[in-house]
Fold this sequence. Notes:
By secondary structure, the chain is of the alpha+beta class.
Amino acid sequence: MARVLAVVFGVMTVGLTIALVWSWMFFRSLALKMPVEPPPKIMAKVNEPVQASPLQVSYQLELPGRGEIFPALSVGGAQDYWPVAVINISNQGDSPMLRVISAQVNGWSRIAEQTIVVGPRETRGVTLAPELLPQAYVNEEIRRATLAVRVVDPQGVVSFAQDRPVLLHSGSDLYWGKKFANAQWVARWVTPHDPAVLKLVAAARSRVAGGRLRGYSAQPNATAQVVAAQVKSQAKAVFQALQASGLSYVSSIYTFGNYVGEAQRIRLPSETLSLNNANCIDVSVAFASAMENLGLRPVIVILPGHAFAGVRLGPQGDETLYLDLTVLPKGTMTEATKRAETWLKKFQPQEVLTEDVAAARLLKVYPLPPTDADDIPTITATVVDRPSETTR
């Protein structure tokens, strides 16, 4: 019996040993067949700045407008105007480079910052037009200022720095441009929400039946003739409000700088209506401001040496009532209309610029920011005209 048990245990021991060896060989073969994961790759640094030798990089700063800045044209993309500056960066190296450019008109603008990449063997021109602060628009005289331009690399090392003198014009100066290419920017002086304009409209309200200035709104089924008559009545009320105050002529066109032949000082309505004087363009934008305030469509007509106002007689169409307000303070509404028509007959159509304020608004030519008008005196106004180099 004992021998039988020994044989059984011996057989079992051998069987277990064979099973263990077979299992080890089976699992080892599986392990050898499994794919081996490759070791993780060392990732290259992302956005690692490329170092460029200073000898391979050059900078050139230019002032296209001879360093003159007209705040009224600084927004909206005037056709005949220039950026404050242009910096040309030339990379003669074999690798692209990153640069951060900043520009500021010290004391008059915010800091404008741009990040650019200049490719190998590439020259890039970058326009610099920092956003002007509100004080630039209420400034009344030409000012000397400094344009500060800095260029730094990704490590913050300054690779270019230059300060250039510039001239900041008054917020009331308009650069007309060559052949009056910027004439539509006169719409910036049409300021319908100016407190002085609101007072003018209030004074006109008492001069219409029922004290209501309806704009183009009319009774249902009103004809175009009825609407036109209503517009003329409102224009006459504003005309009479100006007449009652008594405006007198003053020349306010002169500007300083390199563009005295193409630039002009224009008074905002708040100044015109508080100082009791104006020239032809000044009183025209004041009248246009009142018309726009009423929801009407004013126009400014610009001729060689002169300007006058008008208003469309309907919400659509081009039929217009023209008024030369230089007949004030003693002239009548009829005389204002006749004088405007006389001016139109003196010139060929191509010499007459009719700037529609509503069209200018569609082009994002918006009113200038208001000046400080805490205490606006009672409206008074008189105008006499005389010829000038640009527009009186």
